[in-house]
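Lab notes, practical 5.
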Amino acid sequence: MEIEEELRVIRDRNKRVEADKAWETSLFRKLLIAAITYVIASVVMWAIGVSNFYLSAFIPTLGFLLSTLSLPAIKRWWIRTHFK
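Output from the prediction step:
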């Protein structure tokens, strides 16, 4: 019985880890963070008097989205070079 319980605990943990990983890499999460970034940047830029603050708020949002695209490739390169 003890081994079966340990196996169940491991399987439950694996499901949680898989769910967390799926969330971290999901397009929904990236777009949600981008939307929140855009709204906050718009409000801050409006508050400090930036002209065309709606357009200017795209700069940090685009930076975030580009970083989510480039990091997986950089991660793969780093893993290949450090863990041969």
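Observations recorded by the TA: The first helix runs from residue 2 to 24. The mean pLDDT is 92.
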